[in-house]
Amino acid sequence: MASSRSTGKRLPISCQACRTRKIRCSRDGRPCQTCVRRGLGAEDCIYLGQPRLSAEQSPPGDNAVQNELLARIRNLEGLLQKQMSSHAGTPTGGVSPLGGTSAAGSFSEPETWDSLGSMLDNVGTLRTSPSGHVRYVPLASQWESLVAKSPAAECLPNLDSDIAEDEDDLQIPLARNGSISRAELLSILPPGRYCDTLKDVYFQVFSSVFHILHDLTFEAEYQHFCHDPGSVSTSWLALLFAILAIAVSALDDDHPLLSDLGRERTVSRNIKVLSARYRSAALRCLAADGVMSRHSINSLQALVLINYARVHRGLPIWTLLGFTHHVAISMGCHLDPERFTLGPIEREERRRVWAGLMMVYTIQNTAFGSLDQQGLTQDVKMPADIDDVDLLTSPSLKRPAPSTFPRPTQMTYLLLNFRLYKISSKICETIFSYPSTSRFTTSDLEAEIISVREMVEARYALDTNNPLLIQHQANHHILYSQIHQLLLLLLRPSLCRYLQGEITPETCSTRAKCIASAKASLSIFVTLLETPSFKPYKWYTSGLGSFHAFHAAVTLAVILLIPEGQSEYEEIKDLLDRALDMFASLSVRSVFCSKAVPIIRQMIDVASTKYNPQSPTHSQSHLQAQAQVQAQVQAQVQHQQNQANIQSQSHNHLLPSIQIPLSMSNLSPGMTMQDNYAISHPHSQSGSPVPTIASTSSEHTMHSSFGSMHPQNWIGPTSVPWDSLGPTNGGYGFD
């Protein structure tokens, strides 16, 4: 019976593409005119059971056109292959065989081919999973290509397994997959007292870190929601869920909310489950609100916060971020709100949410290899550096100059951090463009970092009579941590040259600066972790703060192998021992810290084993050459201190004074620095950001934690290849 019904069913006469889109099909060929207008080809225009419209009976002109196109493509491929072969064997400035009359136009320009070759050399790889899903892996750009044929290839991490779990998040709401009632959405909210707690935690901890809302407006709307849950829109409800998802990560380990609502065995699992639950609920609210076609400032704020939450958990965000960007454009947020008739709060909300979106985009863009951001050019002014209350009490207030408000406002941290991420993008562009010449020099980028540091000092100046609020104190430390991270990243190639034996005034000065920044970074990490008032900031010390501290610890551990004296050795070892204890204390909460503990312990053990304070000194000629370098470095650093007044007495705990290298007399007997840090791969070059510093012998030596890791591995927590550091596996975030 079923078979007879099946064979008697009338087959559709419209093509599948038009039927799927539910649009009128012209039914006049393959492809039909409707598909032609939509840019589809014959392979997409399929008719079920219609032999008269099959590919074999397509108009005769189609085959001729296709053959002509194929011939033109083959011709272009041949020309391209000849050009690439000739470019490889022709000296710079040779004439392009394509000539100036080529239809390709700009392709005949030598500089275009230079940039194209550089671009091709620095792209990542495509990874296809067994299920057929394709993923672009930017982290492998130079690192994998350099070591693929070397012994270090065995240490490469399994990049197919580094995607953090996000199955609990509802996928991007491109369509409404079934309706969900308001009652069902409200049922996902935690009990009222817990909802109040999480809301308060967000505005006490996260609001000043990522200030894209007008807190007073949201608070008034929240109170209205508590009295009448049906009075708010589903987009506002999505914003509330996004806030709850972020706030969960700031709760203390023993907070009853985690065990009551999460009911998992560990703190990290409870945080993961709850944050994913509320992120998913936020996306459901947006889908119910019809975010594909209808937008509001609340829906855009919710999307930006969801992206922010996911990027801090190491989850993929590229697709959702692009969707969010286009929602912002569809609302006109890419244009300065002064062009429209809007109130002061509405104007600042638009500027803030756009600035937050651009910051998240810069973070993701940097991790993906500093892609071209020219497409993001816009004329939106930065948000005003004022508190929310000023928008209510002085709605006609003009945008103030920074000197008008010496004390930090609710917007100060975001504005300063935005500057740092812009500098970070430039640094990473320099790293990713190697060996091509970068637009930026190290000295220029260092000057930009110092400029932001001076702004931080001015805005967060210590005042015993009027101490800063706790959130401003925490933000102060976090900004300095980011500054030292950028300095370590920027100066890393020069430090590697020093470790390879290139002793110059520049490399010696770099060594001193790196030690100072690494010490300061660890000091900030300990302060944030041990100060009781900073307990709500464990979300930072467990994540990005741990990464900054780990980078600092690895830097000091490498220097510990060749200290400049007994006192420096003991000081650095004490710092590393303390850092090890800090990472161990966070291991229960942070997977990153649990992976860092065995690595740091191993580095300390190796350094302790190899250090020999009784070893003989180097040859007299080497010591004389080094003494000359030290004198030059001493004069250079003294000049810098006198001219720029780098150090501030009130910030000694954040910015340790720079020390000058004293001697190199603690290497093992009969070994030079070059022997102790043997270059394990012949492609390593002086000045390269990819020096592979590791022992080629079978002796008990430290893993090439610092030297063999590409600078891209120090960009963010998700970029650390744990498999190449030690026996641990995995990624980053809460497990």
Automatic annotation (TrEMBL):
<dbReference type="InterPro" id="IPR007219">
    <property type="entry name" value="XnlR_reg_dom"/>
</dbReference>
<dbReference type="InterPro" id="IPR001138">
    <property type="entry name" value="Zn2Cys6_DnaBD"/>
</dbReference>
<dbReference type="GO" id="GO:0005634">
    <property type="term" value="C:nucleus"/>
</dbReference>
<dbReference type="GO" id="GO:0006351">
    <property type="term" value="P:DNA-templated transcription"/>
</dbReference>
<keyword id="KW-0539">Nucleus</keyword>
<dbReference type="InterPro" id="IPR050613">
    <property type="entry name" value="Sec_Metabolite_Reg"/>
</dbReference>
<dbReference type="InterPro" id="IPR036864">
    <property type="entry name" value="Zn2-C6_fun-type_DNA-bd_sf"/>
</dbReference>
<dbReference type="GO" id="GO:0008270">
    <property type="term" value="F:zinc ion binding"/>
</dbReference>
<keyword id="KW-0804">Transcription</keyword>
<dbReference type="GO" id="GO:0003677">
    <property type="term" value="F:DNA binding"/>
</dbReference>
<feature type="domain" description="Zn(2)-C6 fungal-type">
    <location>
        <begin position="14"/>
        <end position="47"/>
    </location>
</feature>
<keyword id="KW-0479">Metal-binding</keyword>
<dbReference type="Pfam" id="PF04082">
    <property type="entry name" value="Fungal_trans"/>
</dbReference>
<dbReference type="Pfam" id="PF00172">
    <property type="entry name" value="Zn_clus"/>
</dbReference>
<keyword id="KW-0805">Transcription regulation</keyword>
<dbReference type="GO" id="GO:0000981">
    <property type="term" value="F:DNA-binding transcription factor activity, RNA polymerase II-specific"/>
</dbReference>
<protein>
    <recommendedName>
        <fullName>Zn(2)-C6 fungal-type domain-containing protein</fullName>
    </recommendedName>
</protein>
<keyword id="KW-0238">DNA-binding</keyword>
<feature type="region of interest" description="Disordered">
    <location>
        <begin position="681"/>
        <end position="706"/>
    </location>
</feature>
